[in-house]
Specification:
The structure is a single chain. By secondary structure, this protein is of the alpha/beta class. Helix content is 24%, strand content 33%. It has 3 helices and 8 strands; from the N terminus they run ββββββαββαα. The strands form 2 sheets. The protein has a 4-stranded mixed beta sheet with strand order 1-5-7-8. Strands 4-3-2-6 form a 4-stranded mixed beta sheet.
Length: 113
């Protein structure tokens, strides 16, 4: 499963057609090496996104990731878990509704117990 890990605070992420455009906003250091200036990542090549620290990510990017069923995980720059955004895609909605309906029926609940 290909993961996109965004780990630099100087990176901003924008939606550009069917790609994520990552832009490094840091000025080149004295050696002239700043890693990358701009990088395009096709959305079809991503199965999950991990965001470390505080890069700038636009709301349209997060919305597209959710629509495409790509979960996004957030951790601090020191590796502490913050949380995640996981798309539901309504795959289990009907099943959950049916489970709640059955759970309210005493006879069924006794059978399960």
């Amino acid at each position: 499963m290909p993961s996109l890990v965004i780990s630099q605070n100087t990176v901003s992420v924008h939606l550009h057609s069917r790609h994520l455009e990552l832009v490094n906003n840091r000025k080149a250091d004295a050696m002239g090496d700043d890693g990358f200036e701009k990088l395009n990542v096709p959305l079809v090549d991503i199965d999950r996104v991990v965001v470390c620290g505080r890069p700038a990510i636009t709301v349209p990017v997060l919305q597209r990731l959710m629509r495409m069923g790509i979960p996004t995980f957030f951790i601090t720059s020191r590796g502490k878990w913050i949380g995640s955004i996981s798309p539901d895609n309504n795959m289990n909605a009907e099943r959950r509704i049916r489970q709640y309906e059955l759970a309210r029926q005493t006879a069924f609940a006794l059978k399960v117990a």
